[in-house]
Design brief:
Largest sheet of chain B: 7 strands, mixed
Order of helices and strands of chain A: EEEEEEEEEEE
Oligomer: heterodimer
Helix content of chain B: under 10%
Helix content of chain A: under 10%
Distance between the termini of chain B: 37 Å
Number of helices of chain A: 0
Number of helices of chain B: 0
Order of helices and strands of chain B: EEEEEEEEEEE
Structural class of chain B: mainly beta
Radius of gyration of chain B: 13 Å
């Protein structure tokens, strides 16, 4: 199936630093979602975005739904060791309700 | 929040045998469930959409006769990997969709190893 272009593929940052990752698509989506996956577990929803231009925060996480409906970014502020994991963006069209996942960003937080 | 379980969490089987993986929505009814496969260091790839009471819809390239899906009730979908081969070794993840929601609730995944 189609995948979204997610970057960067991996990041190594110092604890306390801010992180930014983004996704782009050639297709329009009605909903953008960001998930975190820990090793050996299923993905957990972090933030859901439902309207173009929407900016939503969840604690230290902030995500935006691009105006063109073809992109989204996720920012993590003041990173901590438990932020380590793989972050996936996903696009969804309401008609199909299926999710198309990005390729993932592996985040490593160094103490 | 909504809880989805999978059983087993890990399974090892011999090549040529069949393996059944269960996906259950524990506190809500799911008219639609999805099955994903994830290879190491890769993203989740949708295999099929499972609708209660009807045949599953498979994504292009996924063999319906090899990956049998049964969604017999509003809380249970099963994926059976028939005649498993080592290349079927992967992490299989299901998600469930409530009929009033567009949000998918993911299970914890099943690690399949075929020897």
């Amino acid at each position: 199936g189609q995948q979204l272009n997610q970057s960067p593929q991996s990041m190594f940052i110092q604890e306390g630093e801010d992180v930014s990752m983004n996704c782009t698509s050639s297709s329009i989506f009605n909903t953008w979602l960001w998930y975190k996956q820990d090793p050996g577990e299923g993905p957990v929803l972090l933030i859901a975005l439902y309207k173009a231009g929407e900016l939503t925060s969840n604690g230290r996480l902030t995500a935006q739904f691009g105006i063109t409906r073809k992109d989204s970014f996720l920012n993590i502020s003041a990173s901590i060791p438990s932020d380590v994991g793989i972050y996936f963006c996903a696009g969804q069209n309401r008609s199909a309700r299926q999710l198309t996942f990005g390729s993932g960003t592996q985040l490593t937080v160094l103490p | 929040g909504a809880v989805v379980s999978q059983h087993p969490s890990r399974v090892i089987c011999k090549s040529g045998t069949s393996v059944k993986i269960e996906c259950r929505s524990l506190d809500f009814q799911a008219t639609t469930m999805f099955w994903y496969r994830q290879f190491p260091k890769q993203s989740l790839m949708l295999m099929a959409t499972s609708n209660e009471g009807s045949k599953a819809t498979y994504e292009q390239g996924v063999e319906k006769d090899k990956f049998l899906i049964n969604h017999a009730s509003l809380t249970l979908s099963t994926l059976t990997v028939t005649s498993a081969h080592p290349e079927d070794s992967s992490f299989y993840i299901c998600s469930a969709l409530g009929h009033l929601s567009y949000e998918q609730y993911f299970g914890p995944g099943t690690r399949l190893t075929v020897t």
